[in-house]
Specification:
Layout lengths: L1 E4 L5 H10 L12 E5 L10 H14 L5 E5 L4 H13 L4 E5 L4 H10 L4 E5 L10 E6 L2 H14 L4 E7 L5 H18 L8 E2 L9 E2 L3 H13 L4 E5 L2 H19 L15 E5 L9 E7 L1 H8 L21 E3 L2 E3 L3 E4 L6 E5 L1 H6 L3 H14 L8
Parallel strand pairs: 2-3, 2-4, 4-5, 5-6, 6-15, 7-8, 7-9, 7-10, 10-11, 11-12
Antiparallel strand pairs: 1-3, 12-16, 13-14
Helix pairs in contact: 1-2, 3-4, 5-6, 5-11, 7-8
Keywords: Cell membrane, Lipoprotein, Membrane, Signal
InterPro entries: BMP_lipoprotein, PnrA-like
Pfam family, one: Bmp
Length: 377
Amino acid sequence: MSTVLGAGFSALSLVALSACSMSAPEPVEDETLGCMISAPAGFDDHSAGALTLAETELARSHGLLSATSSQRVTNSAATSAALTRMNDKDCALTTVLGPGGADELEDQARTHSKNLYLGVASGHDDFPDNVLSIDFDLVPPAFIAGYIAATASESGEVGTVVSRGFPQAKKILDAFDAGVDLYNDEADEDVEHVKSFRETAVDDRTVADTSDAGKDFFDAAHDSDVDVVVPFGSSAAMGVVTAATEKQQALTTDEPKPDDKGSDPILPKVIWYGAPGAFSDTIIATIEPNIRRGLRSMFPEWPQSKNPDEVAEASKEDPTEMGGFLVADRRYKGTIDNGGVRVAAEDGFLSQTSDAGRSIADLRERIKSGDIDPRKS
């Protein structure tokens, strides 16, 4: 499905305007159409897709773009077809989300070297010069997530899953396990060790990027008494959180079995990679990629914010004109050190586990100082 927005404001742009300014956008002399191609979960993924769409709408409402066009795709063939359609629309900036369409984006950019493209969370290192890229180092956040998952677990079993092709997949899995191990090493002697749902190989925690695959993983993990899951992906991640939400609702509304009466059920919990997790009560913490900071480091004319967490560091490069835009940094890598990724506990989890916020801050500082190296743990 393709969507084009012009002069009329969408709901997302109204939200963005209310958070920033209600002044009318400056007139655009030349048409600058911003085009977006989604990852499998679309733009309602509560993750990079939704965050990027909101930012693009913000740029349109401030006059940097004259209109936007979005296309949801589910596979590489659909991505290639969407890129061809976007090229026919004379898009000034074409954005492709996720790793699934990275090869198609590279091919399209090499064929149309005068056009400007942006890859978000692609994990691709060899784009041509006319492709800008925003990526995130998720290894330290995955380590923190493993530690926090172990802290939050009531069953003593936690797990993580990545979609096939997701950037840094094996490193994320290893870092998560290392975070669980650190929790066990530092726990009091009378505290029972938490187990990571590792099964027999990395492949057991790498699934197709589909909602059904995510749901199947959650069901298998829950059947093995896993009560905290950390999913990384697009549709697969949405499948996990959807299944967790349905299971939570069933456990809190269904009549308990005779053997379970008198005890509260252990509810599933999710540490989410994406936008803050108010959309599901299962989410206890969020690994949040700062898309806004990345865009502002690239485009000096991108709408700015008074929030210091969203103000990008000054570029070491002088801005140059590319495709009608001023471009400073062509490559942005968000990390916990530069504010490009943050890990935050949700309010409900903070109220239940008083030291959760302190644990996250402490781990972040220990990683920054070099006291902990998630890649070698």
